[in-house]
Amino acid sequence: MHLRAIQTIVGILLMLFSTTMLPPALVALWYGDGSPAPFLIGFGWTFATGAVLWLTSDRKRAELRLRDGFLVVVLFWTVLGTFGALPLLLEERPSISFTDAVFESFSGLTTTGATVLTGIDDLPRSILWYRQQLQWLGGMGIIVLAVAVLPMLGVGGMQLYRAETPGPMKDTKLTPRITETAKYLWYIYLGLTVSCTLAYLLVGMEPFDAIGHAFSTVAIGGFSTHDASIGYFESPLIEMVAVIFMLISGINFALHFVAWRRRTLAPYWFDPEVRAYLAILAVSATLTSSYLYFSGTLPEVGAAIHHGVFQTVSMGTTTGFTTTDYFTWPGFLPVLLVFISFIGSCAGSTGGGLKVIRFLLLIKQGTREILRLIHPNARLPIKVGGKAMSSQVVDAVWGFFASYVALFSLLLLALMATGLDQVTAFSAVAACMNNLGPGLGDVGSHYADVSATAKWLLIFAMLMGRLEIFTLLVVLSPGFWRR
């Protein structure tokens, strides 16, 4: 491995990330309800650490290997999450521990949206802005942004892109050059953020809330500037805007690019993953709304539909916004909403979960095995969108699913060993591994009351979910470090 080159990259990326602590400092000065000092100190420490790493490396131009790319991604997310906690730790409001600060920072950057903070409405606006900004930066992945910059510094980027981009089809590129690919991804991401902000403004949000919620909506993060989340506004129009942009952000960004370039919506309709994604959410929303109405939980049809649709889309896309305390709903509904987060959004989106394409392949593989029992000698290829999937892709999906189930089970048992009940432990692991945020039981509203040990376990779960499990497991495997 090129350890010196890796050191150079991490140093550069830390220096770049340090600049993101300056906008919250300006927000503190603008609104005058908080101090810019925590952000300026955080900027200083982060920039200085990055500068030291960069200056003490040999700063040679070196093409990264695939193994180097995996290590850079994992190192950067862990280092970034830790340094991102500095302003939260230094700020007097909220006064939180190191563990809580790291938890909140990782939750933001991984777009999980699980929070340890209460009394959010009373926090300084600089902190509120910083939390939303963390999610926006993590939404597409800071590594993908850096891919557009690093080639100019003499560092290859394809390996980083392969290690960072979500989904099973990692080699799909929008343009022949990886730099151009990263730029187009960010153009789309920025365009959606601006559009979402304008839409929120048009339906009555104040500018600060509109920008903050656009950050977390497009990033499918779920942080809010209010304790009551989207429910604070009590506005069906705001909820409708959120639903539309959550749905859009849960679709593969490569499809957004193709649709924009061709000036047609046809790519969405002909994509089997998008059709399955919309069908799953439609069926789940119908079940949820119907049960809310017929069970008498929400006796008005309009209220049942708008709360049912909103919570289904929010949980299904792994955003985590809420309009009500869904975890108090009767019957199977809370568990159903957590379960659809396991499927999650489309590959290549900012969402979490297993991804719809993997879910489709698992179903098709299971169906094929049943047919093989009936027709042992038949050749039955697995097709998606009329194209046969290679055995390598199918095997990778099964390997991913097996790893997911095994790690989920281990984390569930570990959390229960810390004293959490079954419902709380199960939903907490699901919410963090799927980058969802809100859970059930004791973590329905926040994670402030779970133990420090449980929080560190959940931080690990967030990282696994954001890095699609394999990226992290590869670095932790002994074979990775053998020459």
Structural features, described:
The protein is mostly helical and 483 residues long. 64% of the residues lie in helices and 1% in strands. It has 23 helices and two strands. It has helices at residues 3-18, 22-31, 37-55, 66-83, 86-90, 98-109, 125-140, 142-147, 158-164, 178-202, 207-218, 236-249, 253-262, 266-269, 272-294, 301-316, 333-343, 356-374, 391-417, 422-433, 452-466, 470-476, 478-481; strands at residues 383-384, 387-388. It has a two-stranded antiparallel sheet. α2 (22-31) runs antiparallel to α7. It is globular, with a radius of gyration of 22 Å. The termini are close together.
Q: Could you write a compact summary of the structure shown?
A:
With 483 residues, the chain is an all-alpha fold. The chain has helices spanning 3-18, 22-31, 37-55, 66-83, 86-90, 98-109, 125-140, 142-147, 158-164, 178-202, 207-218, 236-249, 253-262, 266-269, 272-294, 301-316, 333-343, 356-374, 391-417, 422-433, 452-466, 470-476, 478-481, and strands at 383-384, 387-388.
- Give the percentage of residues in beta strands: under 5%
Termini separation: 9 Å
Q: Helix tally?
A: 23
Taking all Cα atoms into account, the compactness measure Rg is: 22 Å
Poorly predicted residue ranges: 146-159
Q: What is the number of beta strands?
A: 2
Let me know the average pLDDT.
88
Shape: globular
Range of helix content? 55-70%
Secondary structure category: mainly alpha
Taken in chain order, the helices and strands follow as HHHHHHHHHHHHHHHHHHEEHHHHH
* Major sheet strand order: 1-2
The major β-sheet equals: 2 strands, antiparallel
